[in-house]
Amino acid sequence: MDIARRDLMISAAALTLTSRAFGAGAGDRPLGYAIVGLGSYGLDVIIPQFANCAHSRLAAVVSGDPAKAKRVAADHGLPARSIYSYETFDTIRNNPDVDIVYVCLPNSMHAEYTIRAAKAGKHVMCEKPMAISVAECEAMIAACKTANRKLMIGYRCHFEPTNLEAMRLARAGAAGKIRYVRSEHGFVQRDPSKWRLKRALSGGGSLMDMGIYSLQAARYMTGEEPIAVTARESTDRRDPRFTEVEDIIDWTLEFPSGAMAGCQSMYSANQNHILLMGDAGRIELEPATRYEGNHMWRGKDGREREVTPPPGPGKTQFAGQLDHLVQSIRTGREPIVSGEEGLRDMRIVEAIYRSAREGRTIRLDGARKGRA
Ligand code: NAD
């Protein structure tokens, strides 16, 4: 069994074991999260999820908009001392209610706020993509290590029942020997003024945003680390949305077993799909990685029967994710989607961009490290 596959199996077992062990000490007080960035994900998606958590609670908000921060704090019964601006953020070190900082900011701000949070003595949950370069990811890991704090990436699909069941089935050989994974993710990005289309804030286009899901799927469905990548990009640079970042990017990954993955992301069409093909059948998810309503099928060469997955580790994937970091802090184990996991993706992301730019295959030296 190769090392990456073994690690994934150990991770899955650790998720189950820590959930059980954690349940035994459930009398502990829930740990407090400070949400940094009250945008659509932090405010509309994550904050309401604390109601579904067993071990996590909202403890503070950090925002550049004082009126919004005050309103959100009032809505959730937070005291005035638990409202921070970006300027006062570092004083969060003095707030014992806050155990974890959750970074929900534009991508180029992830590294700065993760490092500042670690220096303030807080554990960190950081949204995907982990940052906008390998160098930033390494600095974030080093800062959390120095401060002896946990770092987890917001890879919610590792807590989502359909994706978890697909991983389990793939590992159990339900499709036979894995030969090919396809994954495409995209949505129509309509507004040219959005930060996602500004390179300085996003670090890149659809790959940095939706492409991370396709890349993650290729890795967690095969359980392998790629050894080579070949990419192509297609962007209409006359389109005012795409003067700075890519629209469509398409890449092929080669794995040590001989399996391949064909992945894609785009900002000009909606897609949300994972398909694993093995020599004994296939596992297909569509939509695959949405917040809710994902579906999975198995079959010989099509969607022959729909699979209903067993419940995941949390009431929702978000609650499972939030509580998992608390479990990791309490048990001392690394989160199953640690900073190292985000770094592995970022190494491949850099290789994908390089391959598209240089028009050649990039070898990734070492299946284990994914180093470009
Ligand atoms: P958003 O634009 O809705 O919110 C961004 C927040 O950052 C806003 O509160 C904004 O005020 C603040 N901000 C601070 N400085 C800013 C600046 N210079 N420019 C723009 N905004 C600034 O974005 P979002 O959709 O909430 O995304 C935030 C992060 O969450 C991104 O990294 C994104 O990839 C991630 N995300 C993850 C998921 C997921 O399913 N895991 C889903 C959506 C977004």
Task: List the topology elements.
Layout: H1 3-24, E1 31-36, H2 40-46, E2 56-62, H3 66-75, E3 83-84, E4 100-103, H4 110-119, E5 123-126, H5 134-146, E6 151-153, H6 161-171, E7 178-186, H7 199-202, H8 206-222, E8 228-234, E9 248-254, E10 260-266, E11 271-278, E12 281-285, E13 296-299, E14 305-307, H9 317-331, H10 339-358, E15 362-363
Parallel strand pairs: 1-2, 1-4, 2-3, 4-5, 5-6, 7-10
Antiparallel strand pairs: 7-11, 8-9, 8-15, 9-10, 11-12, 12-13, 13-14
Helix pairs in contact: 1-9, 4-5, 5-10
The chain binds nicotinamide-adenine-dinucleotide.
Largest sheet: 9 strands, mixed
Put simply, the count of helices is 10
Low-confidence stretches: 1-10, 16-26, 367-372
How many discrete domains?
Answer: 2
General description of the model:
By secondary structure, the protein is an alpha/beta fold. It folds into two domains: 2-156, Rossmann fold; 166-310 and 339-368, Dihydrodipicolinate Reductase, domain 2 (2-Layer Sandwich), CATH 3.30.360. Helix content is 35%, strand content 21%. It has ten helices and 15 strands. The chain has helices at 3-24, 40-46, 66-75, 110-119, 134-146, 161-171, 199-202, 206-222, 317-331, 339-358; strands at 31-36, 56-62, 83-84, 100-103, 123-126, 151-153, 178-186, 228-234, 248-254, 260-266, 271-278, 281-285, 296-299, 305-307, 362-363. The strands form two sheets. It has a nine-stranded mixed beta sheet with strand order 14-13-12-11-7-10-9-8-15. A six-stranded parallel beta sheet has the order 3-2-1-4-5-6, sandwiched between helices. α5 (134-146) links the parallel β5 and β6. α1 crosses α9 and α5 (134-146) packs antiparallel against α10 (339-358). The protein binds nicotinamide-adenine-dinucleotide (NAD).
